[in-house]
Amino acid sequence: METASYSSRTAHEPWNKGKLIGQKPPLKLHEIWTVRTQLRMTGKTRELALFNLAIDSKLRGCDVVALRVRDIAHGNHVIARASVVQHKTREPVRFELTDQTREAHSDLVHYYSDHRHHAATGIR
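Given the sequence above, the corresponding structure tokens read:
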């Protein structure tokens, strides 16, 4: 059986040396508004709706992306308060959606309903 010679290997620098690891500091209010403005200006409706929902709900990322439209909207109406069961803790989390978040999700619902209609009729 061969034994590995660790002394002959060259030392390499760890990928996270000097980087901030662990919990990151929360976004500042002006940073949140900058992201929202950039998403709105570039027309990224889905990303804006998800970003607003993540800020309002304070859910983990895996819980935000697992949400369905029906969890926060009934038909074309976006509800003001929602309750979601967290994946990690299995505890329900209740949160209120701000007007800005409801508007972004309403735009998203209308966008998808329009595209579904156009795809079904062949109109682009």
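Residues 118-124 have pLDDT under 50 and may be disordered. Try to locate this feature in the token string yourself.
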